[in-house]
Structures
1.
Amino acid sequence: MDNIEEKVNDSVDVITDENIWISLGQGSLKIIVIILISVLVTRIAKIAVRNIFKVRTHSALRISERREATLVKLLENTLTYVIYFIALMMILGTLNIDVKGLLAGAGIVGLAVGFGAQSLVKDIITGFFIIFEDQFSVGDVVQIGQFQGVVEEIGLRTTKVKSYTGEVNIIPNGSIMEVTNFSLNNSKAVVDVSIAYKGDIDRAEKVIKDLIETFPEKYEQIVGVPELLGVENIMAAEVVIRVVAETLPMQHYTVARALRKEIKNVLDENGIESPYPKLMMYSKPE
């Protein structure tokens, strides 16, 4: 009974000790202040990064919008990780945990893990070179292996590509061997127009040429005046005329559809026939 009473008295003394509560309160207050400051600094750092890139848009060293979006997102994520890591170290120091010994132990563990996680290191190194060399950026339309779509996010470890049907494909950077970027240069819209074999080819070409000269005013996706290349092929029942238009990156599908519709309508208005299948019957004499 005496031992129990002593333990109870010791517990009561600990609970009623003002110094312990003062230290606990000060430690809790420090942790709260550290968390609030880290959140505030993170927001200020993100705003500063965005403002820096806004200022660069008015300078002579302006970078492309696609690369700007990639760098902004990457810098924001990096700053967030760094600030939260520093805040965590400060919180551990407040709790009287030996941060130096913890970092030294973490370094040894990290070295051991590094040998066993070579694929992770490969992903990070490849991600760094993707961003550094500007192979592709956020918003680009790319083909990576069997995945094609819009780049949603580029990280140091993975790249996210959103397909046209809505799926988001997360690809480890280390597995990216070949990339086809459709957004770096202008695209070409190629449209083949079929005219009846006995139709007036010269008149059809004139009508089409007059039409395509008005296209730059109608469609802002077109760069320059579309080009009428002429007769592309002669077949049994039709003559194929090819029209080519230079468009903004990845706008060739939209422009090609508009070209087909406009050319079809203008050919009908001018009475120029489209080809249709013909059947010829021969009667063998008896």
2.
Amino acid sequence: MSAPSISRRRLLQVLAAVPVAASLPGFGAQPASNRLLVLVYLYGGNDAYNTWVPYTNALYREVRPNIAIARDAVLKVTDTHGFHPSLAALMPAWDAKEIALVQGIGYREGTQQHFRDSDTAFTGCAGEEYSTQGWVTRALAAKSHPDCEDAVAFDLLDQRQADPMGPFRGEGLGVVQVYYPTALTASRTLAGCVTDANARGRARLARMPASIPAAPVKTAFPTDPFGAAMRAAVDLAAAAPELPVIHVALNGLDEDKHHSVDCHWNQLEYHGDALKRLADGLAALRSGLKEIGRWDETLVATYDEFGRAPVENEDKGTHHGLATTHFVIGGRVKGGLVGEAPPVVKIFPKIGGPMPTIDTRRLWTTVAERWWNLDASNLFSKRYAPLELLRA
């Protein structure tokens, strides 16, 4: 027997993250209503140089004799740079000026070690600083509603066994993780397909609706796990317009991050496919959200723990780096280039690379202040200036 449906009003009551009083100093403003953030975690650290390709740079081809993207294949945007051909599905959004490409972003304190730098990516605390709270938790904990979830995550969320909630670490938010998004799109029951949850999330699951309806859209979504997560995100955006955060990880099809963007070897075999799944999924998300009238209320931001080195390694892949490039996408985004692309440099050993010129905490400050309408002066250990990414 299929699960009974519930009223839209009841669904909003259980899923919506209703903003309430503030707690951290400086967090007194009410967040903007119905503003959704979709965080896309490029699990393992993406290669900026083969994503935003310096196709005219002779040194790029010299240090990447096997994995450089052919000049004629690049989707040329400027006289020096263009997108990997696998990102073709994002070109309509780029042409519509709905994509900001944030170049040279990262943490100067990065260690280029997955565990520590993932911790930094989730908490916004680097170097000698540590936190038991994710940066989203610090931003939104005071707004958490006792009867609803605050964040839903698809695929991998965190590597830690203790409090594995990624940017939602700490008990300030109600968080649930659905590792397999196809389980939700097939069963339509969130409680029945949750893989993990924090204490608040588990307590609230008993009050979750019996059924989450499919949004009535014509958009065709990719059938891979990332595409299924994009379909589920549209369904949640339609059913729960006050849900503030959806988190999605881009992983390997076999759940191995080395077969996605963490390309230490055989990069040509995996990286283009990962970027295609990313672009096709995000293009479908944009189309679906436009159909339900939520595109202008949604901000999509990619992030990872670090970038990749500019020099190809002996296994026809790339080692860990520092500065990288990320996408910020949405109907209210000021499209175009932000910052400067990481320069191509010849380094030995073949790990590391140019320092970031834009601190990632500036992006998260932008989300808190300009998207959620919160005072972010105390979000991190010091004040970071927001980026000019959004239209009013």
3.
Amino acid sequence: MKLEKVTAKPGRRYHDACGAAHGLDLIGERWALLVMRELMFGPRRFTDLKKDLCGLSANVLTQRLEGLEASGIVRRRRLPPPASVHVYELTDWGRELKPIFALLGHWAARSPTHDPTLPLSPVSVVMSLETMFDAARAGKARLDVGLVFGDESFRLRIADGTLTAQRAEVEGAEVVFDTQPSVLAGAIYGGAPFAALEADGLLVLTGDRAKAERFATFFALPPKAF
């Protein structure tokens, strides 16, 4: 069965000249924004996207990728040997939307109905840490932190009141957390003690433990709206 590009359906457009309305024409389909989220730290294979987007079928993922590619937001390319596999990545224009994710995430975290116990992908927890980083709490701290989530790893660097994150190896980091995204979120935002998580086999913490404890204090969720 041939897939139909949903972005081409005239009934799904708002027919409104407002830039925000056209933005929703481009990325307003269900799952489209989350597909973009998963590409924010670099190219991913189709199977990687499918694995980290809980509840998304292969059929719908294909449709969303086709729609985003047709709109110039995502591109598909083949990695050079020895990988020689197809990957999807955001275009430069697509990556410009990253600040909007931070604003939307910070705003939505204030909702009383937000459920932090739902699944988190590795990318979503790293983007959450970027969003909820509190420069005043970090002060003049300088810290190099590695995050390992199964076969995915990230490097967070804190300096001069800013946090930068990238998909990278963790060798040489001052602190390394090897865990699951939801476990790390529970430790950072919920105050779950590192020692208790280690005792339960949910976390492997290596490096400077004092710096690890301090790192956990650099993040704050916003107050609920009501």
